[in-house]
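Changelog entry

Holo records now carry the ligand SMILES as an explicit input line rather than a separate metadata file. Below, a converted record for zinc ion, shown in the new format.
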Amino acid sequence: MQFSFFRAHGAVRTLLLAAVSAVAGFGLGWGLSAGPLALCRAEDLTAAPDTRFLEAVAAQQDTNVSGEDTAARRVCLTFDDGPSKTTPAVLQALAAENVSATFFVVANESNEKHLPLIQQAQQAGHEIALHSASHKYSDIYRSTDAFWNDIDLLRERLAPYADASAIRCLRFPGGSTNTVSRKYGGSGIMAELKTQAEQRGWRWVDWNVCAEDAAGEKLSASEVYYNVTHGSEGLDRCIVLMHDSATTGTTAEALPDIIRWYKDNGYTFCTISQLYDELA
Ligand SMILES: [Zn+2]
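Structure line, unchanged by the conversion:
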């Protein structure tokens, strides 16, 4: 099946020099300025993610199964903004239940020392996908060129830990319908980026279930569990947005129960690429 919905939508980041980073004291000399971590914040996430990918998967599967048959139930656990100190606990929870997930990674001064976890995740069978190098909205959404330069930089930084040329999926920081980008790149930048992504052969994806764990206020593990399971009720196909950033340890705590809930409700775990492949 030709996956055509992307077609319905109508890529200069200048690196600071190593000298700057030397002053800032960052190990690999990436030269990014210090300051608050630039990660997904709850208020910047789109409230209306683009779910047409899931609808396309559903339409495809519905030609193969019928009625109340739950054999087609799928869940993709996805983790944004890592790797971080939280990632080992996430990997451990996934390994304990023998399920695969997808990691939309970042690579900047905040998580530089955790990047080897990417290799560990990939070797464990998880999918490594792209999120952003800097994750700074004011930078990546300045222009389409700025966005793609950040992606190129991310791939460069991942190269020691993963086969960056084999990565096919990406998730736009804030989601593909975010509005935070407008003040930097104008109202049409996300539609333009989605078109360009498809033209460049990228598989981009949002979500339809949100753990809301990127909230500034830290959630308890039980609140993360509630958000995920409550948000999944009645859905046969779930793409679950969670985070494995330094501040989301309770998400890792909630993960065993979340996995159990999906298993008890008949879901099969898969990566984003595996779900895309069902459209092939
Ligand atoms: Zn993010």
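Spot-checked after migration. The longest strand covers residues 74-80. The beta strands are 74-80, 102-106, 127-132, 169-170, 203-204, 209-210, 237-243, 268-269.
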